[in-house]
Design a protein that fits this description.
about 45 residues; 1 helix; elongated
């Protein structure tokens, strides 16, 4: 989680979370590599 979150600001109005774009991109690539292939017909 630390690799994804750059900063968290908590105020009375709510919370603001700033994400690290490089960490988010890495997570998306990792998840895409682990996802099963879609669009294939069952045999």
């Amino acid at each position: 989680m630390r690799l994804l979150v750059n900063r968290v600001d908590v105020r009375a109005e709510g919370a603001a979370v700033r994400l690290r774009l490089d960490g988010l991109g890495s997570l998306v690539r990792d998840l895409a590599a682990q996802a099963p292939e879609t669009g294939r017909a069952a045999a």
